[in-house]
Amino acid sequence: MSWNWNSHGLPFLPGYTFRDVTKSAFHRPQTLNYSKGYAQAHRPTVGIGQDPLLSELIQQEINELTFDTPDITYGSSDQSLVNDFIPAYVALDKKVLCYDAYFQETVLFSPEEKCCVRPVVIYYYLEDDSMCIVEPRVENSGIPQGKRIKRQRLPKNERGEHYQWKDLNVGMDLEVYGVKYHITQCDSFTKEFMESEGIVLNDPEPMPVDPYTKRRENPPPSLTKASASDNMHQFLTMDRKVLRFLALWDDTDSLFGETRPVTIQYYLVDDTVEINEVYERNSGRYPFPVMMHRQKLPKKVKPKFESFPSCVLEVSAAEVDEYYSPKDFQEIPPFNGFGSAEDSLQNCLSLVPRPAKKNVVKMLENEQKVLRYSARLDSQNPGDEDRQFILSYFLSNDMMSIFEKTTRNSGIIGGKFLKKKRILKPGSTVDNSEFYSPADFAIGATVEVFGHRFVLTDADRYVLKYLEANAGPIPRQTLDSLRQKLSVGTANNQPADQNGHDVAEPSS
């Protein structure tokens, strides 16, 4: 009722009231708002049609009649007459009690199990005393799972009563629609709420183990020999796991052939392969994405000895010795010689290559430590007999460099023959890479570098001194060859190198 009526001495009866013709709004003010997903209620500030409230007019008249009295004696006059009222749908909004429970289901006509244990989660909504029961989904269970009972008020008995939050406790049985759910435990919010309301919860109980699941995890020993491939285990562990490779289809051998981008998908669940062609916009090609349907791809086929041609185009499983496997699509290509083998390997391990890890301690300890050897080129060409080289081995990063000396009247300009690089030994592969080390540099040994063969003829005295100090991984033959070669140079006065070590001149 609006309070815009002025009596002027007339009774408040029909026909004695006068309506304000200038008034155009007659709606009720809104008192419920949502802030950050939560409902918030507040008291109305105006009445219907933006009229002042009756309580505000009464409070205004009381303030006009009262005298100004000290707040110490009578208190503050700003105190509201009515306390704020918060409805239940606002105070208990999004407050849910959560319980873990299970129920047992009888299994008929199965020799492996008599019953199965199915865990569920019970949610109780304090806002409207409704409940819902959800069964967590288990992959490849073969059982329809998910929401068992939609959110509703669950009946408690035949008298029409419904379950309340006071009826729930840990360790009790909740019977709903003929199914008995046993509650085992609850979450921390539920425990705090129930204790704040004076209800003591029972101790939590462990969830019983499903007999069939336990039997699958620990199968009994079998007297028969297991098959080479467990299809069931492969299905359970590799389902929905697919390897995807980007490749190019090389069709340049045909008349109008070209290279086209394709994707190769390898399904680990059954070892099948599918090839799809990648089409770009406005390419002028009709999209037939499937180039090869999903099937097993033969790798090795048994040879046929029939003298007559076969009319069957498809290859049967009996004719195949081996199918393609994931290792055939992930083979690391051989090292091409560009850069280092470690950096080339990073391109095969990830789409965004990362620099290979380096031994920082070794680099700091062996900084500026170099082993230098004299060498000659082992070649069939008579013009290479007088060419002299210096082979340097850097201990900080196990790299080698070769420098050629300038010889008079030889017609060959000396200089850098090989920049710093790690050199693979002959016969090593990417999987089993073996690089040259000081243990291989004996006097008279041959070092093969990218098809060039170098024979070591001499070395610095620092080489022998360093190898004798670190003689653990060095063969005795290498040390003996250095001692025998440098025995003459030790007695004579030899010039020192840049590190203060004596340098032995190459023997003639």
Structure description:
By secondary structure, the chain is an alpha+beta fold. The protein folds into four domains: 1-87, no CATH class; 95-212, PH-domain like, CATH 2.30.29.170; 238-329, PH-domain like; 360-491, PH-domain like, CATH 2.30.29. The chain contains eleven helices and 20 strands. Strands 6-5-4-3-8-7 form a six-stranded antiparallel beta sheet, with helices on one face.
List key phrases describing it.
508 residues; alpha+beta; PH-domain like; 4 domains; six-stranded antiparallel beta sheet; 11 helices; 17% helix; elongated
Enumerate how many helices there are, as a single number. 11
Summarize the biggest pleated sheet. 6 strands, antiparallel
User: What would the CATH topology of the largest domain be?
Assistant: PH-domain like
* Euclidean distance between termini CA atoms: 125 Å
What does the average pLDDT come to?
81
Give a count of the beta strands, DSSP E runs of length 2 or more.
20
Residue share in β-strands: 25-35%
Task: Provide the structure class.
Answer: alpha+beta
- Look at the structure and give the CATH class of the largest domain: Mainly Beta
In spatial order, strands of the major sheet run 6-5-4-3-8-7
Low-pLDDT residue spans: 488-508
Total individual domains: 4
- CATH-scheme architecture of the largest domain: Roll
Helix content: 10-25%
How big is the Rg?
45 Å
Shape: elongated
